[in-house]
Here is the input.
Amino acid sequence: MIAEFRLPDLGEGLTEAEVVQWLVAPGDSVALNQTLAEVETAKAVVELPSPYEGTVSTLHAAAGDTVAVGAPLIAFDVDGGEADPESPADAEEKAQPNLVGYGAAPTSTGRPARRARRVGSAATAADTSVLEAAPHDAAPAAIGDVVLERPRSTPPVRAYAKRLGVDLALVAAVVGDRVITRDDVDAFTAGAHAPASAEATAFGATVPSSPAALAEGERELRIPIRGVRKHTAAAMVQSAFTAPHVTVFHTVDVTATMELLDRLREDRALPEHRIGPLAVVAKAVCLALGRAPGLNSRWDEAAGEIVQYNYVDLGIAAATERGLIVPNIRDAERLTLAQLADALKGLAETARAGKTSPAELAGGTFSISNIGVFGVDAGTPILPPGQSGILAVGAVRRQPWEHHGEIALRQLMTLSLSFDHRIVDGAEGARFLKDVADVLEEPGRAMLLR
Here is the structure.
């Protein structure tokens, strides 16, 4: 019987997704919940698990195609029999899972496994159908008659290699068994057999140190606007021309906070927690929002209401290889400083691996952007749609500053707060910024806020 799997609803009202790459090809045997493909929505790259156990019959879309939610994606021969004679109406009535990560009811004890490929001798021709379906899975023929696993890499790196037409199996032959990075792909493209220069990081998410090199003789590089970049651009335009933005700045003496962090790093009770300045800022923001409810609200135009939240889903802007994303720390106001630090670390690791899910990007009541990681002092951040406040955190710099009536070298940070002036007036914005600054200047003042 032939069973079709249609592109499921990936959440947050997303109506389509682009097939980044197939991890199976026609004729492959597939186990229940085995990953079939990686697809890119406007928010994230997600893996699609198989709801069936059987043999792949047809791929209804090629890598790079955009598929609408509900459209046929792949067909399986689930028992080797004839096509399912049921009518389209009957098929529509059958209950089908509609969320990524739903899983399916187990029907066998088969265990999903990474698909291996048998590679022939150098004289063996490459399987072009496999190359088209999953280019990273085709290993170089010169390796010999061995069985290889799919090269180790993250979804953004595989998508990047696909755009450049690079076979990751060839890159893996150079870098060995470690995880392939974007720099490895660039180095391979340039003909070098060593990783490129070190990358800068933002919230732990890697950002390429240089753009992809232009092909010889080319003067321009044309990059399709799609995925996260397309979604971010539309959201920023909508926000900039809908909410009247106001930005206020405040330079803070954070010497006491930095000294506190030095003591916490030496505390034997906190060996597994990497508490940094961003965690302290996040804690200060959660405390200060309790006295500035307008900054933890949204403007509901349709209902003619301002919706105030009694919780804080704290968005953390992260620069990744695929563009800017803003995953959220749920109920951040309930977390201790150490728990916030752990949440930030987990968020960064997930973003770096390209595994941030649409659910983690949904919602958010207030956001923080750590521009200081790039050595920037201040800026005018644009509000994420649906939020009324965002705080940009500048770099910590040691500078001369007035302290107890004298000039001393102190550690300074500039805070930049943008807010929606429809909801928040200047007094509330200034009070919030001062509350955050007070905690950073003297962490003990956090005891006075609730």
Confidence is low (pLDDT under 50) at residues 81-148, 192-202, 204-212. The longest strand covers residues 406-420.
